[in-house]
Amino acid sequence: MKYTKDKFTRILVRIAILGMILEWLMSATGCSGRQSVLGPPLPIVDAPPLTPSQVATHALPSLTPTPDGMVTLMAVGDIMLARHTGELILAEGASAPFAGVTDLFHTADWVVANLECTITDEYDPENKAYTFSAPLEAAMGLAQAGVNVIALSNNHSMDYGLEGILDTLDHLHANQVHTFGFGMNAAEARSPLILEKDGLRIAFLGYTDVNVETSTYFDTRAWVADDSKPGLAWAIPADIEQDVTTARQMADVVIVYFHYGVENLDHATRYQHQLATGAIDAGASLVLGTHSHRLQEIEHYKDGLIVYSLGNFIFDEFDPIANLTAVLSVRLGNHGLIDYTWYPMVIVDGLPQLADEANSQVILSLLAREYKVYKPGLEPGDVSE
Length: 385
Known about the structure:
By secondary structure, the chain is an alpha/beta fold. It is built from 9 helices and 19 strands. The strands form 4 sheets. Strands 1, 2, 3, 6, 7, 16, 17, 18 and 19 form a 9-stranded mixed sheet that branches. A hairpin with a 2-residue loop joins strand 14 (298-301) and strand 15 (304-307). Helix 4 (138-145) runs parallel beside helix 5. The longest helix has 23 residues, at 5-27. The protein starts with a helix and ends in an 18-residue tail after the last helix. Mean pLDDT is 84; it is low at 1-67 and 380-385.
């Protein structure tokens, strides 16, 4: 076929347009490589250094404050201390990633987060799309910042095999950072971490439910513990009901931390709703979630609170919408939740800092959404049906 100069020029223009479209699609992806379902990203204004101040939200009206045994718990989402953040730790010190939140964290009794990496010098990664290994100093940085409770049931905690997670445990525990969601067998993985402060006992349980990787076909269920194998706790409804019921007999307050749902989805799936409400039904007071890399909606369910996803907290190489986040601060008493407060944050170059007024309003509007059930077939990304 003969190509004239004009025809050839038109072909080049079409190829260039197609290239720009493909480049835009690639830029809209997170660490999973999947396209965001959210549309144009929200703008992020670099937040100036601010003095921490409470952004008030409504209290839970059905609960009565308990002056005796009352503690403050802060909760955040995914903390990933490898890649550029790991380089920052080596260059500027272990506490450098937490500079924008350390003062805030030290006002809480407990700070819980999901650790989305290993802390190891092991160099034998699993065959999966993303493997994250943080410097050994990262454990000290968590402790110095006030992060003293870590969820380990997720799709990155065994990125460097059993040796990698055992290193992680050794370094965290050496720095007095408590862990849950992993064990040397199934019973230990499903056992609650119980902490006591001022006479109040709090139990933490952690579970994973994530999809098979589309690029490598890696299945995180390969890491699930059994009677004789170390590993994670998988989010099986009957197990969760049994574990929460048992933990409730041992503690005043039960908190369940899930790593679940669909990456880059800005709302919870029906299966997330089933797991979360099932935990509350069994006796949990607070359900927290991560994995979506987005702030998802909340739900006031019975006497409990569900935060379907806390999104990212320390995580580099993400698009703007994934850099809107928050610190959840809850007051806990003998009867569960008393009230809660949000501290809006933006992630700049992978690191959190207090949000300016414009971004705070956007973040609070995201967190003001209550969960609603989507009709089958109308929920993008929902693969739980």
